[in-house]
Amino acid sequence: MDKLIELASTLVSGAFIAVLAAWLTNRSRNRQEQQNEIGALRVHADAMTVAVMELQGAAAANRLLWEGPAERGRAFLLTLLAFAGGAARARIAGGTDVQSGLVGFGQAAELLSRERVASKQTLAALREPLARAATAAAPLMRSSDPAVAAATEQLLNALTDVEDTARLEAALGAFGRAVNTATAPRLSWWARRRAVSAG
């Protein structure tokens, strides 16, 4: 009988150890998967933030290069000078007033055409950062955290109008808060219980 009790005791303690080991293994695996998800979320969020900042920089450069009042004034002045230079050249070559005017308009149109092409090329440079932002947003839109997915969608919507900097900054701030909340260290059951009892 003692042998039977000893055998039963060994089986119960073995079963308990096996259940405890399985529970600890599962808990450890779940924590590792959670840490991997958090790490991946941080990487994707960083890529999204960098793409948004790059897009903002490209848009600001475009505004500075082509859309400011100083640039518009410069383009107007250069157009006048091109017109006057072309007209003077045609007049010196013996052209009539009409011919000189036509040559002047041609020179001005050529200059404006080059300016327009350069402006469109600079604007087309916004496509690449916009594509990077969309690529970075794809995994974030599939995030298991609904706040991150919603904030990413809001940020993508704000990127459609880069000129609305207030809306873009607000969307970027909401995105950052959602990512910070999703990647914050999670308290254990025991720590949460102690925080509730202390409060």
Describe the structure.
The structure is a single chain. This protein has 7 helices and no strands. The protein is mostly helical and 199 residues long.
Secondary structure topology:
Blueprint: H1 2-67, H2 69-92, H3 97-124, H4 127-141, H5 146-159, H6 165-183, H7 189-198
Strand content: under 5%
Head-to-tail CA distance between termini: 54 Å
Which term fits the overall shape? rod-shaped
Number of helices: 7
Helix fraction by DSSP (H/I, runs of at least 4): over 70%
Low-confidence runs: none
- The radius of gyration computed from the alpha-carbon positions, rounded to a whole number of angstroms, is 33 Å
Q: What structural class do the secondary elements suggest?
A: mainly alpha
Largest sheet: none
Mean pLDDT: 80
Q: Helices and strands, in N-to-C order?
A: HHHHHHH
Number of strands: 0
How do you describe this structure in short?
By secondary structure, this protein is an all-alpha fold. It has helices at 2-67, 69-92, 97-124, 127-141, 146-159, 165-183, 189-198.
Which keywords apply here?
single chain, mainly alpha, 199 residues, 0% strand, 7 helices
